[in-house]
Amino acid sequence: MSVELLTPAQARARQRAGALLIDVREEYERADGQAEGALGIARAALESNPAAQLPDPAREVVLICQVGGRSLAVAQALVEAGYRHVASVEGGTARWIDDGLPVLRPTLDASRTDYVERYSRQLRLPQVGEAGQQRLRAARVLLVGAGGLGSPAAYYLAAAGVGTLRITDDDVVERSNLQRQILHSEARIGTPKVNSAALALAALNPGVVVEPIARRVTADNVDALLDGVDVVIDGADNFATRYLLNDACVRLDKPLVYGAVQQFEGQVSVFDAGRRRGQAPCYRCLFPSPPPAGLAQNCAEAGVLGVLPGVIGLLQATEAIKLLLGIGESLAGRLLNFDALSMRFHELRLAVDPECPICNAHPKG
Ligand SMILES: [Zn+2]
Question: Ligand 1 center to residue 42 CA distance, Å?
Answer without folding.
Answer: 46
